[in-house]
Prior knowledge:
CATH architecture of the largest domain: 6 Propeller
Largest sheet: 5 strands, mixed
CATH topology of the largest domain: Neuraminidase
Distance between the termini: 120 Å
Amino acid sequence: MLKDKTTANYVVPNNDTLGDYITNNGLNTAYITANYGQDGITPNNNDGTDEPDVRDTDSDNTETDDTTEAGLTLSGVDANFDGMDDAILPPPSPTAIWQSGIVNTSTGTTFTSSANLLAYYPSYDGVEMDWRSSLSPDYGDAPAPYKSASHLSSTGLAQTYLGAVLPDFDTGDWGDGTDTNGDATDDDTVDDPTGGVDDEDGVTLPVLIGSATTYSVDVVATNTVATDSYLYAWIDWDNSNTFDKDELVDGGEITIPTGTVQQSQSLAWSTLPAIAQGTPYYVRVRITTESLADTATGSDEDPRSFGEVADGEVEDYRILTSQIDFGDAPDSTTGTANNDYQTTLANGGASHLLADTDGNNQVDITLGTAWDSDTGTLENTTATADDNDGTDDEDGVTLPSQAAPGDSIDIVVTVTKEASSTLNGLQLYAWMDWNADGVWDPATEAVVNQPIAAQGTLTFPTTVPTTATLGNVALRVRVCSTDTSCNSPLGQATDGEVEDYQFMVMNFPVNDVCDRFYVTQAASNPNYSFTAVTPVQPLSFSFTTLNGSVVINGLNSLAINRDTGVMYSTYINGAGNLAIVTTDRTGANFAPIGEARSDGNYTISNIANSISRTVTPGGALRLSGGFLNFPPPLSFPNMGTVSRDGTKYYVTHSSWRHYLIIDLPTMTFEAKPTPTALINNSTGALRTSADWAISEIDGNIYSVDLTGRNFEAGFTATLLEPTQPKLYILDPVSNTVTSENINF
């Protein structure tokens, strides 16, 4: 049955005979020109050949016949002679009033108006019942000269598409696939065309950073048709205004199996060219049941990116590179741990996009006055990585370097808003990780909470909790407009800035008296005692255990800052890496200050065997063994001394071929090969006992071989007759060793 009118003002057909329909090419006489007061209708002939569409079994002369293309199966039976195959419209029951589509049920309702029909039968646009509408394709909306991509539309229950919203039917001024506003958002506009929806919801595009070398997006795909669908995606990385074969997503054609419903697909481009700041890049994503022919090579335009297909959906997007500011608190592993925060892009750290709303090359909102972008990879133990990269923009906050639990401190923050900015309002927040667990708790660790903030220099008095964990903790400060959100220590804001700072919670008394030395002893690692050793004339020592219950893995290499009395020791942290902890002469409390990170490429190896560790810039030195002790553990340091100015911490182990020079202000280390004069290959150890000390007079490091037998008995505790004792003197600047005989 053919109907030519909209639901409103419906014209009732005549009771024509079969001969009438044959004569009029399938039209009821109520609608032919001779009997219809307006213009009548002419049967459409889509392919321009043979029969009109109503009598043509292959009306588009493509692929298969119309019935197969529509996904229908005919029975060849029309028992009630209603002109519809019974598989499509079964005969109604004797009491039926209206037949409901292809389902053998009756509405039981008499329709007396257009509203009745539209309320009962499916209508995509609320104007016309779906099976009486002309459905135009879904088009992409990338701007010219990108070629048009289109997908024939369907209102069937089984479809394949992107996102959660079914594709709309594009008949507006961009219905040819040409974007008119240049940003690939025409198809996002609701009610353009009339009844259209924003169906561009299938792709999530992360921020593209100018320094990016890889990029990935998430695509939500559905396929409820009876066959597999195929997903394609391109990004025009070379800005050639074409989507090329070498710009296709990694993996090429991606199969979306039948039965897939709202499933997220991660698409990646693993190798990018240099990204141009501020340059638009266009994205095209298509899904269809057609497996499109792959005929392009290299950088040729990919023909799969344009043209019409039988079903599915296409979505186009524009992405712009962005400058982003991140924090720089320590973030050495995924997740959080002691002195290990969420800072980097990969770990979901806080970030702020550059905002210059008036285009005067002045950032709208900053902490202090400076602002620079970074890659989302900057972090280090002292939260100074962003300070040392490019512009030092960490100029918005001042606070003491350390305080004791219970002390009062002032956190001073300078907020700047550019006068001609069009952004609204200001927000200011800060958090201090008092319990040092690597998580800024918004409920208990907020030290600044101003959803309505002022410009200028602002002072926030803060009391260090008496329960604060001793050691280094991190402060995070964020400022933004009220047009975005920065009231969480994580997440992205569209303007403003984030700055991170290190703060030491310490209650160690200053004591520069040097009248004894200190050792750690372990019955079994990690259970240590902290002991003071006092010389007693003429040749004996008094041992006093100050703390017999220290539980720290690998606690060793004790060394003291002679001005402050602060002691340093290496240990193995929870990640299995070399880290540093501090204490004082009482040994009552121990305060971790973080991992030492490499400042270059080094390999630290054993003297006796092949056990070694290779580190790269910014990397930590792993001491623990791997899974099933592969690789085997590397012995943790057992020798330590601190330079007279308190900035350098020299550590090694009796079995290492290298020693480390740890710069305490930056918590970075350099590895130097131990001079061969200090190494005894036959014993697989250094020639001296497991201790050394630096001279405040000449800056050299002194160690002794009291037996003259090197460290031959060091690992076996064997009593050997001494020969000639020696004093070894290491110059850490020239990395040379001299020795002298010791005569008792």
